[in-house]
Specification:
Elements (H helix, E strand, L loop, with lengths): L1 H21 L2 H21 L5 H5 L7 H9 L6 H19 L8 E5 L2 E6 L11 H5 L5 H8 L24 E2 L10 E2 L1 H11 L5 H4 L11 H11 L2 E4 L2 H6 L8 E6 L9 E5 L9 E5 L3 E5 L7 E7 L5 E10 L9 E6 L2 E6 L5 E3 L3 E2 L3 E8 L12 E5 L3 E9 L3 E9 L9 E6 L2 E6 L5 E8 L4 E8 L12 E5 L3 E9 L3 E9 L9 E6 L2 E6 L5 E8 L4 E8 L12 E5 L3 E9 L3 E10 L5 E2 L5 E13 L4 E11 L13 E7 L3 E10 L8 E12 L4 E8 L8 E4 L3 E9 L5 E2 L1 E2 L5 E13 L3 E10 L4 E2 L9 E7 L5 E7 H15 L1 H16 L42 E13 L8 E10 L2 E6 L8 E4 L3 E8 L4 E3 L3 E11 L7 E9 L4 E2 L1 E2 L2 E2 L1 E6 L6 E11 L1 H4 L4 E12 L2 E6 L8 E5 L24 H27 L1
Parallel strand pairs: 11-18, 19-25, 26-32, 34-41, 44-53, 55-65
Antiparallel strand pairs: 1-2, 3-4, 5-10, 6-7, 6-10, 7-8, 8-9, 11-14, 11-15, 12-13, 12-16, 16-17, 19-22, 20-21, 20-23, 23-24, 26-29, 27-28, 27-30, 30-31, 33-35, 35-38, 36-37, 36-39, 39-40, 39-41, 42-43, 42-45, 45-50, 46-47, 46-48, 46-51, 49-50, 51-52, 51-53, 54-56, 56-62, 57-58, 57-61, 57-63, ...
Helix pairs in contact: 2-5
Length: 1095
């Protein structure tokens, strides 16, 4: 027993001694103090939680407890237990610490955080693990892949860190064990793989002070988080769903310190896809395994430090033959059948996309930059991608450039000179630019031969055969060719009139270099000779033809000059012609205000003044009659005419006549315009010398008046009264009163009436098919009634003044145009003579049959014109017997000289309208005051007729004939028709009239019948001409019934009362009521009729 106790004491002393040698007492003491304080803070800041473990439940056995159970027996000393508790509290404190902005990290032992260690400065995070450890991108996976199917790592027993702080204790795989024999904790496995992959794990140990060095996962956490990019997740499922996991990533589990026996865990992600749940790690008690992702202690966070992608890229450098970087050169990169086009940057560098290791990439230069060409020997190739950068360098040679400079003999650059350049087996025709240069770029290689020849020069120069062609062998870079040309001697001839104005179109003959040249002066009166004359060349000149308005002066019309290099000038002057032109317009009556009719005989008196012209000048006058103010053509054909004659005196009047069809010219205004031409013997051409074409010249104007008519239509009734209503009679008279305006006093006019049917909108025809018309011819001012008179000029001046006030601004502009035209009567550019429709003499020589010159030298006297306003009556007679109810409209037309000049034809114009009455009658037939009686004696027959639409105060005949319904013939008694006629004169359009026949013996009418029915046929007439009737066997109101009594009846006599249609006669009250009903009906008919007439 004593021996066992002694052995236990010795073992404890050895453990304590070993721990104090590895970990300084001061560090353990400081660690214990710090972890105690940190644990208090953590417990206050965070309540105990197991959320992480709930999300991904793992077993709650920590690495530290595994290590303890492995290295000690079931009975251990209380001292060892206390040390273990201090280490666990240090783990909790370390979790609370974060990497500071100054780059400090915390080191720790296996499950024991250490003191912070400061980096010298804040550093950028490494992109991945290979970058941090300084190894190739595929080194980690290469190491692991090499042993994923053997026992180099797999199956290595799990060995904790606490019993031996030497990192070699836990970095001892089966395949390469240390002196401690096979055994690894989770961190030792990771450290072994990184070191065997070539990684510098001292980057972990040198930057941490934690217990256990590279075998402590806290050291890895702290250093990697401070130096390497990491992703953070809360659960394994969140991590796998992120899509960012790579094979060989390091996964670190941050323990939840709120649970007992917590510990961290670390290993490699070994999934073939980002979501593949595979984990290569050392795990208690299984040792080194590949399993699903798990940890013994619940995790608070998961940190993932990524492995690098196993890729490479092309780094291409593009330079020219001088070694200059070439930016903007295009390359096509093709891998796995897919192509990408990229360009070099400003430094001539090109970096391709990343490709998997081993990919074969073909590269080809597809477009280079100016001044270079693609060398097929080095512009394409292929490369197998290795890890990282794959360097390629491509060189382009430069073109050899040629600049040809073209100058004249004084050193000025010449633009537009044409050369033929021959190179590369082809001819190229090019011209010099504005700087006198031709540049060949991007086409010539070094030592290429180029031949050049000047083929065409520019104005003012000629080709010198001594230096017009040559050749050279170009070199890389810039090459220059200089070519010069001598200048020509230029000659300028200036042609002006005696006022100094330049004359365009004057023809000259210039003789030089042994040839004649016929040319004309340009718009500036200039003739220029360029590109033809050399120094000391003699030029002879002669004026051949001058222009309109001028003639050739023989003393100044020719000469010669010896030109010198540079500019030479000749000036030639000509005298001018001067004619004046005015005119006055009228018609054959000397009037300037005329009717718009056929056969208007117009005249323009044109006064011509030959102020400066040769004697007996041959003249041609082109005259046209156009619209006032616009110059537009009047009528369908041009009214232009041409007359030729001689000027036998200095001032004379030439008459121009026009037989004008002015139909439709109402209100329009015409104006004469004239252009005078002179036949110039010196030119052999007609030349315009004067014009009078002011489109607003009142003296040259003819005003076509605008006659107006308005009508009022009337019938005569039977009493010769004027009325708008007529009975439908066979002979109706009436008239149309025509109110006129703007008729010319003394002129003959004709008024024509035509009757129209408003309903059909066609000409009214009587029963015989004849039209209803009326006509009257008058002399204005003599016939009819004149109500007002006004002077035509005064009328149209007032009218123009009113229009001017409405459009003052427009009229002002028009006035300015008038002034401009008046000031430029001599202008030769405004209006050209128009083609004539009458006989035109338009030849180079004047016609032989010229008119004799008139003797008049002044204008004739014009006549005043008065415009009349008044009215005339146009009578008509019509058969309206078949026009009941029709509305008739009188269409009126005014004409003169067989030309319609005004009309009024409006179907809806009530003043032009008259209406034919449509008389109607209705009846109430009674026998003995009843509709039906029984008797064979004498009876009294009455027929009360209600009429409408008759003409008041006109006497009518009302006839009643009684008809037998059995025979449809008139009732015959004693061989005579049973009929009666009375005369009546209605006071109103509607009313009633009663026709009575007394003592009618009816017994002889029965025959064999027991009863008879009689119908009253009514007819209203005027002078035996029917105007209304009611003849209907089926009309109950016209029908009475007489029954034959079985017993002979006593004779009855009328009781002196009105007949009735049914029932007894009734009381007087009944008759009063019936009277009121008839009165109301009559009133309704009258009112309704008036409304219809108004409509």
């Amino acid at each position: 027993m004593k021996t066992k106790i002694s052995r236990i004491i010795v073992s404890l002393v050895m453990i304590v001694t070993l721990l104090t040698q590895i970990t300084p007492i001061q560090a353990i003491t400081a660690y214990a103090e710090s972890t105690s304080a940190t644990q208090v803070q953590k417990n206050e800041a965070k309540p105990k939680s197991t959320e992480a473990s709930k999300a991904d439940p793992v077993e709650s056995i920590s690495e530290s407890s595994q290590e303890t159970s492995e290295s000690t027996s079931s009975t251990e000393s209380s001292e060892s237990t206390k040390e273990q508790e201090n280490v666990e509290s240090g783990d909790k404190e370390e979790i609370q610490r974060e990497v500071a902005l100054d780059g400090s990290v915390y080191g720790s032992g296996a499950g024991v955080p250490g003191d912070p260690v400061l980096f010298r400065s804040v550093r950028a995070l490494s992109a991945d693990l290979p970058t941090f450890f300084g190894i190739s991108t595929k080194a980690i996976n290469a190491e692991l892949t090499a042993h994923q199917n053997d026992s180099f790592y797999l199956g290595t027993p799990y060995r904790g860190l606490y019993l031996n702080p030497d990192e070699a204790y836990c970095l001892s795989p089966n395949g390469a064990p240390t002196s401690y024999g096979p055994g690894m904790n989770c961190t030792g496995f990771v450290a072994t793989v990184i070191r065997r992959a070539g990684g510098d794990i001292s980057r972990i140990t040198n930057n941490s002070t934690g217990f256990g060095g590279a075998a402590n996962a806290y050291n890895w956490r702290d250093v990697l988080r401070a130096t390497t990019y990491a992703d953070t997740y809360n659960t394994v499922s969140e991590m796998l769903a992120s899509g960012t996991m790579r094979k060989g990533d390091i996964i670190y589990f941050e323990p939840d310190v709120s649970v007992s026996n917590y510990d961290c865990h670390i290993g490699f992600f070994w999934g073939n896809t980002p979501s593949d749940n595979k984990f290569w790690h050392s795990y208690y008690p299984d040792g080194n395994i590949i399993s699903d992702i798990k940890t013994k202690s619940p995790a608070e966070k998961i940190y993932v430090f990524h492995n690098a992608k196993e890729e490479g890229y092309i780094s291409l450098k593009k330079v020219n033959d001088k070694g200059d970087n070439m930016a903007g050169v295009s390359f096509k990169l093709t891998a796995d059948g897919k192509s990408t086009t990229v360009k070099t940057d400003a430094n001539g560098n090109l970096k391709s996309p990343n490709y998997p290791i081993g990919t074969v990439v073909e590269y080809e230069e597809t477009a280079t930059i100016a001044g270079h060409y693609i060398d097929s020997a080095s512009s394409k190739g292929k490369i197998t991608i290795k890890e990282g950068s794959n360097e390629i360098k491509v060189t382009n040679p430069r073109f050899a450039n040629v600049t040809l400079n073209k100058k004249n003999d004084v050193g000025l650059n010449l633009e537009g000179v044409q050369f033929k350049l021959t190179y590369n087996g082809k001819d190229h025709s090019v011209k010099t630019d504005k700087n006198g240069q031709i540049q060949v770029t991007n086409e010539l290689k070094n030592n290429t031969k180029i031949e050049w020849e000047e083929t065409a020069t520019i104005a003012g120069h000629y080709i010198d055969t001594a230096n017009a062609k040559g050749s050279m062998v170009v070199k890389s870079g810039s090459n220059t060719i200089d070519v010069s040309n001598p200048r020509y001697a230029n000659l300028t001839l200036i042609k002006q009139d005696d006022k100094g104005a330049n004359l365009e179109g004057v023809e000259f003959n210039l003789h030089y270099n042994g040839k004649d040249h016929k040319v004309k002066t340009d718009k500036d009166g200039i003739i220029k000779i360029t590109n033809d004359l050399k120094n000391n060349t003699k030029v002879d000149w002669e004026e051949l033809k001058t222009i309109k308005g001028h003639y050739i002066d023989p003393e100044k019309a020719k000469g010669s000059i010896v030109v010198k290099s540079g500019e030479n000038t000749i000036k030639v002057n000509n005298p001018t012609l001067n004619f004046g032109l005015t005119s006055q317009a009228s018609n054959q009556d000397g009037a300037q205000f005329v009717n718009p009719m056929i056969g208007q005989k117009l005249r323009d008196e044109v006064m011509i003044q030959a102020n400066q012209a040769p004697a007996n000048a041959k003249l041609r006058l082109t005259s046209d009659f156009v619209e006032f103010g616009t110059g537009e053509q009047l009528g369908e054909e041009s009214l232009k005419q041409v007359n030729e004659f001689e000027a036998k005196q200095a001032q004379f009047v030439k008459n121009v006549y026009l037989d004008f069809d002015a139909t439709g010219m109402h209100g329009k205004k015409g104006v004469w315009i004239n252009v005078l031409e002179f036949y110039n013997p010196s030119t052999g051409e007609w030349e315009e010398v004067a014009r009078h074409d002011d489109l607003t010249n009142e003296a040259e104007a003819i005003q076509f008046v605008t006659p107006e008519i308005h009508t009022e239509f009337f019938f005569y009734d039977q009493n010769e009264n004027e009325t708008k209503l007529s009975d439908p009679l066979a002979k109706v008279k009436g008239f149309d009163r025509v109110f006129y305006k703007n008729l010319i006093s003394g002129q003959t006019y004709k008024f024509d009436l035509t009757m129209m049917d408003r309903e059909s909108e066609k000409e009214f025809k009587d029963p015989n098919g004849n039209s209803v018309t009326g006509s009257i011819t008058v002399v204005a001012g003599k016939d009819g009634t004149v109500t007002s008179t006004i002077n035509a000029r005064e009328y149209y001046e007032n009218l123009a003044k009113e229009e001017a006030e409405k459009e003052e601004s427009k009229e002002n502009d028009s006035d300015k145009e008038k002034e401009t035209r008046k000031d430029s009567d001599g202008s030769k550019e405004t209006i050209q003579p128009k083609a004539a429709t009458q006989e035109v003499v338009d030849t180079e020589e004047p016609a032989d049959d010229m008119e004799e010159q008139e003797e008049a030298t002044e204008f004739s006297t014009l006549s005043d014109v008065e415009l009349l306003e008044g009215h005339v009556d146009v009578p008509f007679e019509a058969n309206l017997s078949a026009a009941k109810g029709k509305v008739l409209v009188a269409y009126e037309q005014l004409s003169t000289n067989d030309t319609p000049i005004a009309d009024e034809k409006e179907l809806d114009n009530e003043k032009q309208t008259g209406k034919v009455r449509n008389p109607k009658i209705g009846t109430q037939a009674l026998v003995n005051g009843k509709v039906e009686v029984t008797t064979d004696g004498k009876v009294t027959l009455t027929d009360k007729i209600a009429f409408e639409d008759l003409t008041p105060n006109v006497e009518y005949d009302q006839k009643v004939t009684w008809m037998d319904t059995r025979t449809k013939l008139p009732v015959m008694i004693d061989g005579k028709e049973l009929t009666s006629t009375i005369k009546f004169t209605p006071k109103e359009e509607t009313g009633t009239v009663t026709v009575t026949i007394e003592d009618v013996v009816v017994q002889q009418l029965f025959g064999k019948d027991s009863k008879i029915q009689l119908v009253a046929f009514e007819e209203t007439t005027y002078n035996d001409e029917p105007v209304a009737s009611e003849k209907d066997f089926n009309n109950k109101g016209q029908t009475i019934t007489i029954n034959n009594p079985v017993e002979p009846a006593k004779p009855t006599s009328p009781a002196g009362t009105l007949p009735q249609t049914s029932g007894s006669l009734g009381s007087p009250v009944t008759w009063i009521l019936l009277g009121l009903v008839f009165a109301a009906s009559a009133l309704f008919i009258v009112v309704n009729k008036k409304r219809q007439n108004k409509k």
